[in-house]
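Argonaute linker 1 domain-containing protein
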Amino acid sequence: MVFSDENRAIFWKVVADHPTIFANKFAVAFDGAHQLYTPYRLEFPEKRNSMRLEADVPLAKDSRERTPCAVSFQCVGPVLIEMRRTRTNNLDERVLTPIQILDIVCRQSLTCPFIDNAANFYSWKSSCYRIPINGALALDLEGGKEMWTGFFSSAHVASGWKPLLNIDVAHTAFYKAKISMVQFMCDVLNERAGAYRNQSSTTRSSYGSTTQPGRTYGATRGGTASSTGRGGYHTYPPRTTHQTPQRHEDSSGMLSPSTLYKEFSLSNHEMKILAEAVKGIKIRISHRKGAVRVYRVNSLQMPADQLTWVT
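Tokens:
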């Protein structure tokens, strides 16, 4: 079963745009993939058993302001919610068991966008996580990540055939909400630098530098020896000094977007670290007014003035 934020956005937009079919938009239980349950039979056009409803939905991955979308519905008949049964009385194999249907219904309050509180949570499969916005706290995990708190819920059949809703506290790591690519780069490199700066035992990192017991590093990252990298966590030749009053590091030796200078560039090793961290994540492009697109990062390339093509 594939869960998708786009599936939910398209489905609920269709529900909002067709009030004649969905007379009570709160009496709809959707699992985010392909299961839909209602307490009454939906009135399909011309009393058919299937229908196709269209709606224009703004999707982040599409450059158009609104994308034409459609949802196909097929009625498979009534189901009997009785906990003593391991299956409903419906012969269609796509219909879930009674307790699974109840599980979907119990999660609607945090997945239905028509309920105000749903905007404060992000749903993923059987878990819902509180979005740290409007002053809500989140534990900073460094490297552009933070920990969100939520809960995992699942419905079970208890003794005496009574329905039981099990709820457990859940925590997971998310990338920071609305973080810029520049800030993400700084967080990733600062995290890696701190990991090697704070080592207390003699270890040889994968980057070829050796850390001695009890060795400490100055407030500004980088050393005088060519074998000491920024924060002492890798080895590469010293940078060319730029004649500028600005520095790309703050007083604590950490990268900061506010102090990057125009000629700033990453070393080959820093590019490798950033490439490993950013590969596979989705980036939302919104610098063009009225156009928002989402791309998945495959790799990092050299600056445009250094790229060559074989002709």
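The helical segments are 5-17, 98-106, 181-197, 268-278.
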